Amino acid sequence: MADERIIAEYLVETPRTLSAAAESMAGEQSTGTFTRVPGETEELRARYAARVESIKALESVASPSLPGAAKPQAARGQYERGRVRISFPLVNMGADLPAIISTVAGNLFELRYLSGLRLLDLEFPPSLAAEFPGPQFGVAGTRRLTGVADRPIIGTIVKPSVGLSPAQTAALVRTLAAAGIDFVKDDELMANPPHSPLAERVKAVMPVVNELADKTGRRVMYAFNISDQLDRMLAHHDTVLAAGGTCIMVSLNSVDYAAVDFLRRRAALPIHGHRNGWGMFYRHPALGMEFTAYQKLWRLVGVDHLHVNGLQNKFCEPDESVVRSIRACLTPMLGGYVAMP
Fold first, then answer.
1. What's the pLDDT tens digit per position in 1-21?
2. What residue segments make up the domains of the chain, in order of their start?
3. For the domain 5-130, what is the CATH code?
4. C-alpha 165: how far from chain center
């Protein structure tokens, strides 16, 4: 671990020179701050300082992409854009996921000398594979549980999103399964509400799934949304498992990384990761995070399925971005860790 580093690639826009901004970013997220402090010795920097690995200049623009940015010096009058790669010593963080995220995607987004910042990609050192289990089922396990080996898995969502009783949900599942659907999921808005408590929904839906499996030999995978407080999520998981369920769903951005990591280390079912709220990370091109980086964090945690948009979808994401997202989930990292998009 002593010599291993996490590499983060950023799209940077700055009123400074790219090199000055990159060095400030590296200092801010490791040994430095806005000014040199007495304890920041050369010995400390040699071991713990982040390092600028590369800078690729792009275009310059006359106006900042984000509000609150400092103004460029009058002689330059432009905001520079570029791609910057910075490496962070793993010894600064260890296998501490919140610390990793705070390092690569923390206070940088608030700094005045960055008029735009987007985390584009991440590279993890091999030793993290021993610390994070990754997807437990992934593509192969999901295909095994659904019995679908040589064609796309056809899925759908229970609609209306909210308002159906457990019995009404079960009746809809019967109709969908009879139509040949392989995968059904709760809407992200349907978790454990008073009108359809998760335990009651499981009690109503799973007999239908089991009955149809006995009749047809096909077991529909139903992803129950267990998103909740951490102790209740674990109890919900156990309820689904005890009833013979084959999938659980969590709203990733609502419960966050540490909670899903805790769940993954105790789960015996595939985790379907719903990315609702993703738009606040990616919609502005000069702010947030690319899905390439986002999905690597969730695969490291161990999510088996990761939402991507559909082609010709109702959202603002273009088709070429959707295709990139699908390919990203299927690109091996750390020797595997493939998730089903």
1. 668 999 999 999 999 999 999
2. 5-130, 138-330
3. 3.30.70.150
4. 31
